Amino acid sequence: MDDVKWMRSLLSHNVRMPLSIIQGYGELLEEGKLDDEKQKEVVTKICGNIKYLSNILKLVIDNDSSLLEYKFEVVDILDVVKEVSQYMKDFTDRSGIKVNVISQSEKVIIQADRWQFIRLFYNLFENSLKYMGRTGNINVMVSEAGKDSILIVYKDDGKGMPEAEVDHVFESGYRSAIHKGENGHGMGMYFVYQIVKDHGGNISVISDVGKGFSVRIILPVAQGDS
Question: Which of 20, 18, 19, 26 has the alpha carbon at shortest distance from 42?
């Protein structure tokens, strides 16, 4: 992929949604109808999204390759899912979509780059908001899959995509035939795939027209495992 296309795709899939979230929360503050506790919550979400955008823009404008180097640390993936789903809540509510984060554990810990997984879940949620085509649910199930790995199952009950196209969903620039008339660069799931693979994980998709879109991710608990 050439540099210009890469930059446009990165900005499209990593800037538009958090920027819209900041705008939405800013408008809430401007209305002046929030109590002190809600104001604090909104400001925290705005700051989190600004920090995320700052990293993306630094990567693009400064060509700071260090941001592409993974910074592994102890991460509660369940907490990351909940954080991003809260950032997206106004958008999902507005679209008539209910997000359910499901886990039998209070924490699901792995060695990972937290910022990259925020990117991953932003892309998954944005993909659903863009292509579900109807009201419904997004279910994110996070669980331990033995002592050495965890399982994440992300599923929406939108209009899905043809089963015959599923094998191509992670290809750079690929877009399903049923989405050709909609905005997008076909890079969201490619970014998701790269993040999972760079963490030593495996990812697969199950979908068919009218049956929703399901993503299954298996990740090692510690780096160096597979």
Answer: 26
Does 225 map to a domain?
no
Place of tokens 């510690």: 222
DSSP class of residue 225 equals B
> CATH no. for residue 168?
3.30.565.10
Q: How many domains does the chain have?
A: 1
Instruction: Name the stretches of the chain with pLDDT < 70.
Output: 1-13, 59-69, 173-186, 224-226
Q: Nearest-CA neighbor of 203 among 165, 159, 151, 164?
A: 151
Q: Which of 1, 46, 43, 7 is nearest to 174 (CA)?
A: 1
**What is the residue range of 91's domain?**
3-220
Residue 60 is predicted with a pLDDT of 67
Is residue 226 domain-resident? no
Verdict on whether the full-model pTM lies above 0.85: no
